Amino acid sequence: MEVTTAIPWWVWPIALAAVGFLIGVVAVLAGIGGGVLFVPIVGSFFPFHLDFVRGAGLLFALAGTLAAGPQLLRSGMASLRLVMPLGLAGSICSVAGAIVGLGMNADLLQGLLGALVIAIAVVIWRARSAEGGLVDPDALARLLKLEGKFTDPAAGTRIDWRTHRTLGGFAAFGAIGFLGGVFGLGAGFANVPALNLLMAAPLKVAVGSSALIISIINSSAAWVYIHRGAVLPLLVVPAILGVMLGSRLGARLLERVPAHLVRWLVIVVMLAAGMRALLRGTGLWI
Amino acid sequence: MDLTQATYARWLDVATRAGFAISLLAFLVYVSGLVEPFVPLEQLPQLWTLPAARFVQVTGEPTGWGWLGMLGYADFLNLAAVALFGVVTLVCYARIVPLLFAEGERLQACIALAQVLVLAAAAAGFFTGGR
Questions:
Q1: Model pTM?
Q2: For burial by CB atoms within 10 Å, which of A12, A118, A171, B96 has the most?
Q3: Which residues of A touch B46 (CB under 8 A)?
Q4: Could you tell me if A36 and A185 are in contact, meaning their C-beta atoms sit under 8 angstroms apart?
């Protein structure tokens, strides 16, 4: 505490912008949401209380996904029809999660965050994808018309897709929204498998729709943090600006950098940040 | 639905760009010292290690919508700018509700309307005792 308070205030926004920039580069290259890196890294290695880190993390993920949304919708990679019912379930639960999170003991929260981040690293390591396509939709999916067409310019193919296991999807997005609210995470790591592996949306539609769902879920949870005084603009704005610039560089590097190396880098960083949070939460390494 | 999706994308684009521009401008005003903040920047390193509830108690900052009356301070001006990101989705959904009804997509329209209500309730502080 004494060391950190001896450092002038202006060093921290610059450091946050730098971290945001690096997260932006890596997140694009690894194909994950940046929010899942922001909270464990900043929460473990910066002096801010976890309340402010989670408030900033929600807005960090929100700003990034809002910025990506228009292009994803225009290209057909995000389906508003698919996003709307799942986003509604997620946003209701995210409010509950945010309220629960702000009422929890910081050490317990830090320890749980560490365990969750380590689990997410394992999920990213083990993640597989399914092609999706023409599954037999259930009655609810038919009622909600959870289907669409997507043209993949890279493969030069047009995919007609439908989804199934709609109730399971609602439950998954309710749980994802709750965890996102508690920990201030964007939850692309969980959205994509839920949409792709569980509901059988094509992978690219799952990735695109996931970003839009994060923007909806985080919008409602962010208000809880704002109303409780857990948002410090001095932390939020530099991180957002950093990630915006980093994402642009990441998109340019996408064709040159081997994706599997970046994926391993993300896993190692998440394991390190997760271990640090776990040790900090349990009081073994303050 | 294609028209709805295109409209949502257009409104999202404009609202997000406006949010970024306003946030950047407000942040420059904040850190440049042009407008005085409620909590001096030099004091923040001693305060941001506190839980949010304690931070609010020590600084005397308002919670809920109380900050709307503090926009004369640079930090609250900046908070208002950041809070715009929380309004973008609400605005986009509110725009597509009439379009969905006009297209005869009643179920989707009701879902969008429910989302508007959830976001509006969250923004109003209905779930958190905002005022």
A1: 0.87
A2: B96
A3: 5
A4: yes
Contact check, Cβ <8 Å, B82/A237: yes
The gap between the terminal CA atoms of chain A, to the nearest Å, is: 11
Ordered by start, the domain boundaries in chain A are 12-281
Contacts of B52 in chain A (CB under 8 A): 49, 51-52, 55, 102, 225, 228-230
A214-254 pLDDT, tens digit each: 889 989 889 999 998 999 999 999 998 898 888 878 767 76
- Contact A232/B48, CB-based, under 8 Å? yes
In this prediction the ipTM stands at 0.92
Q: Enter the tokens of residue B54.
A: 């304690």
Q: Give residue-wise pLDDT tens across range B8-64.
A: 999 999 999 999 999 999 999 999 999 999 999 999 999 999 999 999 999 999 888
**Any B CB within 8 A of A69 CB:** yes
Q: In this structure, what token pair is assigned to residue A210?
A: 């996931």
Reduced DSSP (H G I as helix, E B as strand, rest coil) percent helix, strand, coil of chain A, to 5: 75, 5, 20
With b meaning 16 or more CB within 10 Å and e meaning fewer, what string describes A128-154?
eeeebeebebbebbeebebbbebebee
CB contact under 8 A, A4 and B75: no
